[in-house]
Amino acid sequence: MHHLTTPAPSFKSLLPSPPRHAPFLPNPRLLSLPPLPYSPSAAAAGHSIHSFGLTSRDTDLSSSSAHCSTSLRNDAAVSHGKLRSFGPKVVDVATLGNLCVDIVLNVPELPPRQRDARLAYMERLSASPPDKRFWEAGGNCNVVIAAARLGLHCATIGHIGGEIYGQFLLDVLRDERIRMVEMTEDGDAVDTSSAAYETLLCWVLVDPLQRHGFCSRADFREDPAFSWMSKLSGPAKMAISQSKILFCNGYGFDEFSPGVVVSALDYAIEVGTSVFFDPGPRGRSLSNGTVEEQHALRQLLKMSDVLLLTSDEAESLTGIGDPVLAGQELLRNGVRTKWVIVKMGSKGSILLTASTISCAPAFKVDVMDTVGCGDSFVAAVAFGYIHNLPFVNTLAIANAVGAATAMGCGAGRHVATLERVIDILRESNIQEDDAFWKELLVRNVKTDDEVTFLSNMALNGSSNSPSHATLRNVVSELLPKLESARLEGKLAC
């Protein structure tokens, strides 16, 4: 059942807010924000770190920080065969681009499909911005907020403008204990008064049937929104080198040129940072896009460590309708690909490696809003990857985090909380559909595949059937890690 308990506002009745070009007002709380962890190699190269708009040139990089919102473990990079060690990896997850402010509105009908009509529709909305109560952090903010709530240390790399929307986004990220690394440097020749420098806005439109439509200025540009960025900045490189995982998705191409995205991929590989890539709906258009876009997509599909796709997206990129076969095709075509994860919506999810197939049904919850569920799912997969969890455990926590987000209203600050995830796991109410999974697996299982299926009962596998991992055992292994993360979060603040 899909419903929204708190209706989004109608754009005809919204209170006015300050104009888009309102002057930037410094936030005194930002002045105490410490920089990213010290990196001797980066310091030697003269790189600086931009943290919430501040540069490390004004800060003692060698000083330690005990600030509750930015405490970081100074442990070495995880090295369990999935993550390679390349210097201190003190950030768990960094995201590339796709930072925006969502504005959620109830509308009588979704915007028209025609480009000119959609543009006119968006301009009418933009002429009367909504009250700040209806602003929300969007895009990759969903990923890092969900990951931070699981106890991971997060940074987000991209661009946020200096206007009121950018200030709002910075405040949200800071409150969630997430670092912002700016893609521009002090010496860059950028017209900061230009509309192209502003924070991206995304209008999230909800019709009476609770269907969603999305609209932003990036939809109406031939070139990326931040086409003035031509290279990775020093701060961005430092953040990538100090992160265990760099997450990219197809929406990053709306902001950055294919060359910038590929340079981030190449640099992550160079410094031993694992790359997660979710092509999303943009995968189809990229595969039919410019020569540069097609090349960038191929590189990301081949060189990423983990691919995450819906079953429809997997079929779109491979031409194979069976999600298991499509995932295995992506694995075969990959050079560095270790995991392919196929999201099956209300059915659950599948994790494929070169020799294993793991499946986990979804959890039963009262669904209020599905926006942000996929982003939250990514955050939990990163948690499992970093903690070297068994594959089926990783799927279980990812399904739980996605379900916890679906129980809320909207994304951003409304994504899954740790408490809600723990409650879902404790209730252990999964959507078992034996007929669906049996049909899917029987036609795909090979004698040399190790197949594991999450269920309420334990069964040993055979050459023609999967092993059943009991939900009770999986939950008993996950809860101590999550309880520990909750305790650490309370102690940090």
TrEMBL record:
It holds the Pfam family PfkB. Transmembrane segments: none annotated. It comes from the Eukaryota. The lineage of its organism: Eukaryota, Viridiplantae, Streptophyta, Embryophyta, Tracheophyta. This is Carbohydrate kinase PfkB domain-containing protein. It comes from Linum trigynum. Residues 137-407 form the Carbohydrate kinase PfkB domain.
